[in-house]
Task: structure prediction
Amino acid sequence: MQFFILVLLVCLFIFLFCVYFLAKDDLILLRKDVSMEKFFNLTFLGTIFCLLSARLFYGIFHATTILLNPIVLLLFPYFPGLSLVGGVIGGAIFFLYLYFVKKKQLPLGRMFDFCSIGFLVTLPVGFLGYFMFAQENFSIIKTISLMAVYIVLFIIFYKVLLPKMINGKFKDGTISLLLLICFSAISLISHIIGNFKGIISLENIVLSLMLITSIAFLVWQENLLTKIKTFKK
Result:
C-alpha cells in the first residue's frame, strides 16, 4: 500500500508541475491579478476535495460497507480504494462551486483548463502505478491501451487545442469540457469491454450522464447549434 501512496504523490507532483508550467506566464491570469500562490491554494483545496470524492464514490460504486464506518471511509491509505470517476466528479463539483462563488473574481474556465491538462498528464502514470501495485486484477493489455490513448490525447490537447484556447479561437473552459467528454467516453467503453455482463452498473450510468451533460455544456458554451445553422446557410 505504501507504493500506491507513492504513485499518488508522484501523480500529484506531475500535476502541480504541469499546472505551474502552463499558468506561470499566462497573460490573462496576470491581468486578473491571479498569483500562483492563489492558484495553488485553490488547486490544493480542489485536490483534497477530489480525493474525498474519489473515496466516497468508491464506497458507492464498489464497497458500500465503507460508507458505514467514517474511520474506514477517511483512512484510505490503510483501507485502500479510490474511484477515478469519483475524483473527476469531485473536480467538476468543486469547479461549479467556485463558479457560483467567485466567477467575477477569477478566470475559472482558464484555470480549470490548465488543471485539466495537468490531470491528463498524470493519467498514464496513474494507470501504470495501478497496474503495478493495486491488488485488483488489471490486465496489461488494458493498461497499455489506456496509457497509449491518454498519451495521444495529451499531445492533441497540448499541441492543438491549448494554442487555440490561448489565441481565443474558443472560450475558456472548452478544453475541460472536451476532456470530460473524452474521459467519460473512454471509461465507459473500457468498462463495457472489460465486463460486458455488467454493462448496466451504477458507475456506467454515472459515466453516461457525465458524457451527455458534458456534450450539452459544450454545445451551449461554444454556441454550436448557431454555428452549425450559419455554416449550413
Observations:
- Residues 140-166 form the longest helix (27 residues).
